[in-house]
User: Fold Hedgehog-interacting protein from Galemys pyrenaicus.
Amino acid sequence: MQGGDERGLLSLAFHPNYKKNGKLYVSYTTNQERWAIGPHDHILRVVEYTVSRKNPHQVDLRTARVFLEVAELHRKHLGGQLLFGPDGFLYVILGDGMITLDDMEEMDGLSQEPSGCRPFETKPPSVSFPACRCGESVPRTDIHMARPFLSDFTGSVLRLDVDADTCNVPYSIPRSNPHFNSTNQPPEVFAHGLHDPGRCAVDRHPTDININLTILCSDANGKNRSSARILQIIKGKDYESEPSLLEFKPFSNGPLVGGFVYRGCQSERLYGSYVFGDRNGNFLTLQQSPVSKQWQEKPLCLGSGGSCRGYFSGHILGFGEDELGEVYILSSSKSMTQAHNGKLYKIVDPKR
Assistant:
């Protein structure tokens, strides 16, 4: 793996039943091709691993199973985050890859199929699924054949059923996916129209997962590159035209850093709030009204019980969440990623 820009290790997610099956999922970029393809800079790959039986703190590399491979022309707007929802499905968040219309026309114009691999059409025909059924999902038998056409997955949130072991396929398509029966959209797509998603979070609060699944993402605003936006990802929506949950110009022009919906116990006043910030150390929260269901923006004050500085002395690299729902801040005193001076902070209400 190579880094220095947006390439390298992108994300890691543990299976909801990790304690029993030992499975985890990793997304990263690589130059190692597994199939013939047209013009590209690198491959974005999603792989499943299982921990070693001899050492539970180490994966067994022999268990690697490739789920997805997406060709990328450029080194920005990659996305690549992996997360599991309370519905048990794996969500794969992909950026638009900075693909231009010229790029799409070039890739869509490829007429020769790679040797030994049947690519998908840019607008795939109706898919003929085998008779095998995995619960409420249908197996995707040809998904190990990576997509050389860029307009299929880029800028999308994919929703996959990874528990398709009985069908001997990498994953299945949930029947509740919005394009399950579509003839012009890949059935993996849950929503699309994203540009440069930073980080997304799934609300772990137990709700009706078929109606109130809450996924919040930070993203660049494609129409106004000087501003950013927070999106509430809803099944079947196109965020090229769908209004943002929140749109604003980040403080001090710092890039937006997505966080988590707080569901811990040590900061009761934050419960249910989406905590996020920007790279320059400013924090905000979004709180949903229990009556109107609208999200309201509020500043997050930092300090002791009797004082409020209102800002964070350092650069916010990201947020983390533990299994109890407590939220952490990953920070650095320098903006350079090569600087080894990061610190980890825990958000705790001083009035608890």
Summary: The domain at 1-197 is CATH 2.120.10.30 (Neuraminidase). The first strand starts at residue 9 and ends at 14. The helical segments are 18-21, 101-108. Residues 111-136, 141-151 have pLDDT under 50 and may be disordered.
